[in-house]
Design goal:
- There is one protein chain.
- The protein has six helices and no strands.
- By secondary structure, the chain is mostly helical.
- This is DUF2065 domain-containing protein.
């Protein structure tokens, strides 16, 4: 079992692995993120399930992560968890308009987004590694 002080680092590590894995998937198969966004906009059940998962994961991260105002990583991870939970609620309440807004906000999904996600993943992994 992880010590309370290590929990933010573990969460950052797994979020970094997620971001890195998703970005490598998009780089290997360009257009998969655009197809996914299109599928979200068209499929009510997929939006509903995604909203539930976002709410559950965000709430779990928010509740499990120890709050320590002196630890900037703990604060950042708590804010990420709260943001995920809020995104889940918005997805459940305003699924189609929210996904349309997200599609417009992202614009054309291309290599730049995947490279930015990969960079975020590497940064989170390195931050976590520095804490262990």
């Amino acid at each position: 079992m992880a010590h309370a002080a290590d929990i933010p680092a573990w969460i950052a590590l797994f979020m970094g692995l997620y971001a890195l894995g998703a970005s490598v998937g998009e780089l290997r198969s360009p257009g998969s993120w655009a197809a996914m966004l299109d599928g979200f906009e068209r499929n009510e059940a997929l939006r509903f399930l995604t909203g539930i998962v976002l709410l559950a994961l965000g709430a779990t991260i928010y509740l499990v992560n120890p709050w320590n105002p002196e630890d900037w990583l703990a604060v950042a991870v708590t804010i990420m968890g709260a943001g995920m939970a809020l995104e889940g609620v918005v997805m459940l309440a305003f699924g189609r308009p929210f996904m349309h807004f997200a599609s417009q906000l992202l614009g054309v999904v291309n290599r730049v987004w995947a490279l930015m996600a990969a960079a975020l993943g590497v940064v989170l992994i390195c931050l976590a590694a520095l804490r262990f």
